Amino acid sequence: MRLITLVLATLLILIQLPLWLGKGGWLRVGELENQVLVAQRKTVELKARNAKLDSEVHDLTNGTGAVEERARFELGMIKKNEIFIQILDADGHPKESATPLPPVKPDLKTTP
After folding, report:
1. Residues 86, 95: Cα–Cα separation, whole Å
2. How does it sit in the membrane (predicted)?
């Protein structure tokens, strides 16, 4: 009787091993769920980025405000009949702007 119980318990354990450790086991399911969560977070970030880029494209194609803003900040352009005022510090160097300028992007299309 003891031997039969031991054999049945061993068989039960052997049957359970693939459920826990096998290809479709619970541990693998947990890993896959974590991968799905990471992919969903990345998707949300990319959708937000795409929406921002889509909005920027829409502004650039349909309005003059975005083009004007880029011309002012990236190219330093001013409108006709505008007055440009630059405040210098005690050393004669330009003061830092209260509103930081966007980073300058290197021009890949340089023409001599």
Report:
1. 8
2. Single-pass type II membrane protein
pLDDT band at 99 (very low <50, low <70, confident <90, very high): low
Q: What is the mean pLDDT of residues 5-14?
A: 89
111: Cα separation from own chain's centroid: 33
CA distance linking residue 57 with residue 51, whole number of Å: 10
Amino acid at 97: S
- For every residue of 30-82, which 3-state class applies, written as one string? HHHHHHHHHHHHHHHHHHHHHHHHHHHHHHHHHCCHHHHHHHHHHHCCCCCCC
Whole-angstrom distance between the N-terminal and C-terminal Cα of the chain? 96
- 10 Å Cβ neighbour count for 69? 13
**86-to-42, 73, 83, 93, 97 alpha-carbon distances in Å:** 43, 14, 10, 10, 10
Percent of the chain with pLDDT over 90: 22
Mean pLDDT of 23-51: 91
